[in-house]
Specification:
five-stranded antiparallel β-sheet, Jelly Rolls, 6 helices, eight-stranded antiparallel β-sheet, alpha+beta
């Protein structure tokens, strides 16, 4: 399931992130690529562990924690390994699958990947996130401040930028619920509860859905 979330960060948060990125040191994106992926990864990223990355991560984390749509769809246990990526003219990232486990002192599973777009689509040509599936590809290029989440095990690529600059925050999520279909079921139930909330004539239906949601969380969640 591909999930999109509009206006994840505010305009002020976007400006703060862009200010941090403007003063940050960008290095070759192959710094975090395996030998197999280094031949197809051509981008730049803010150096891992640097102060700007930590400050940007704090802003994004705060924004996601207050976003109920994200929380009810993803059930995040840990957002980790965050990067700020930059693609300039001629840069792209070939088809690949991200690592199943990431981290240094603490290792986390990668259930979902996220891309938070920082500049508007008309600021650059190309640079779409291309998610591959059985019948082809889904191309995603969202407005600034919007985010896409997708299963990390899905084959994907970033198409070549032919004009301008693509700037985005990328990161990975370990969910309390690792199974994609289970997360989708819980997300649907949460949406149904929200539709029924506060409507007295549907109180019994709301309570039954709430009970089912809670019991499925007990079955599927991994604290």
């Amino acid at each position: 399931m591909i999930l999109t979330f509009p206006e994840v960060i505010s305009s002020d948060e976007q400006k703060a992130i862009l200010a941090e990125a403007a003063q940050a040191e960008f290095v070759d994106g192959r710094e975090t690529a395996s030998p197999a992926l280094a031949t197809i990864k051509n981008n730049q990223q803010v150096r891992r562990g640097s102060v700007p990355v930590k400050r940007i991560a704090e802003i994004v984390l705060a924004a996601l924690r207050r976003n109920p749509d994200f929380l009810n769809a993803v059930y995040p246990k840990q957002l980790h390994s965050m990067l700020v990526s930059r693609y300039r003219e001629g840069m792209e990232y070939g088809a690949h699958v991200d690592q199943a486990l990431m981290g240094d002192t603490m290792v986390w599973r990668t259930d979902l990947s996220l891309t938070l777009f920082l500049n508007e689509p008309d600021a650059y040509d190309g640079g779409e996130l291309a998610l591959q599936h059985g019948s082809g590809e889904t191309l995603t290029k969202l407005p600034a401040r919007s985010m896409v989440c997708y299963p990390t095990g899905q084959l994907h690529r970033v198409t070549a930028v032919t004009r301008g600059e693509r700037l985005a925050v990328v990161g990975w999520i370990q969910s309390y619920v690792r199974d994609n279909a289970a997360r989708e079921t819980l997300c649907d139930l949460a949406k149904a509860m929200e539709l029924l909330r506060g409507r007295d004539e549907f109180r019994a239906a709301h309570d039954l859905i709430n009970k089912t949601h809670a019991n499925l969380m007990r079955r599927w969640a991994e604290p």
